[in-house]
Design brief:
Blueprint: H1 5-12, E1 19-23, H2 29-36, E2 42-47, H3 50-62, E3 69-73, E4 87-93, H4 95-103, E5 114-119, H5 123-132, E6 135-145, E7 148-157, H6 166-171, H7 180-197, H8 202-217
Parallel strand pairs: 1-2, 1-4, 2-3, 4-5
Antiparallel strand pairs: 5-7, 6-7
Length: 218
């Protein structure tokens, strides 16, 4: 089976031999691929809506993988026990939603798990959560698929959080030159925010402009 470029990139980050959870699985394309190709020995496919769960169950049955892929209805990681998985894929949703999912599952604060994340929006919110909760971003990249640009990253829990660094939330774990389109986008966003509050919150506006200037200088 063939995956989209977006799902192929995510699949390439799953550790061989791991048990994987795919949160927001939709049609279970990713877990079916990972198990069918032998990358993962088992998978749990989770979605919060009955429609996608039914579609996932149908796809798993058609692939004859019902014994190794368990499809579950539920919110985020709530249907999963900590001892059932090692790699966790959360993709195709906003950064704020991802943060809520991770907050509701404090057991992910362990170095046994690898997080594979692909936020659609509010990446800086996800960065902030990871940074403030002791996660280390292993790698972060941009990809293009069907005319859209996506951010994807891997992270693991590394211990105590460092002193907070607001600049990191907007810079992320990118290396130049790959990260420059992302940094320019964030700089534009920060400057628009600064313009909107410069009369009511001049100090905050100045802080936002300084962050934007630092991003443009990378």
């Amino acid at each position: 089976m063939e995956l989209s470029e977006r799902l192929s990139r995510l699949a390439s980050l799953v550790r061989p031999g791991s048990r994987v959870a795919d949160i927001g699985t939709d049609h279970a394309l990713l877990p079916v691929f990972l198990v069918k190709t032998g990358v993962c020995r088992s998978a749990i496919a989770v979605d919060v809506k009955p429609g996608p769960v039914a579609a996932a169950q149908k796809a798993v049955k058609a692939a004859d993988l019902s014994d190794t892929i368990d499809v579950r209805l539920g919110d985020g990681l709530s249907p999963i026990s900590p001892d059932e998985v090692e790699d966790i894929v959360i993709a195709g949703m906003g950064g704020e939603t991802m943060v809520e999912i991770l907050k509701a599952a404090p057991w992910v604060l362990s170095d046994r798990y690898r997080l594979i994340l692909q936020p659609m929006t509010r990446v800086e919110v996800l960065h902030r959560f990871l940074y403030q909760h002791g996660f280390e971003i292993e790698e972060e990249h941009l990809m293009e698929d069907s005319g859209h640009r996506y951010v994807y990253l891997t992270a693991h829990f590394a211990g105590d959080a460092p002193v907070d660094d607001p600049f990191f939330h907007w810079r992320g774990g990118f290396l130049p030159p790959e990260g420059r389109p992302f940094w320019r986008m964030n700089a534009d966003h920060l400057e628009r925010r600064a313009k909107g509050i410069e009369k009511t919150e001049p100090k905050e506006a100045a802080t936002l402009r300084t962050l934007a200037q630092k991003l443009r200088a990378l």
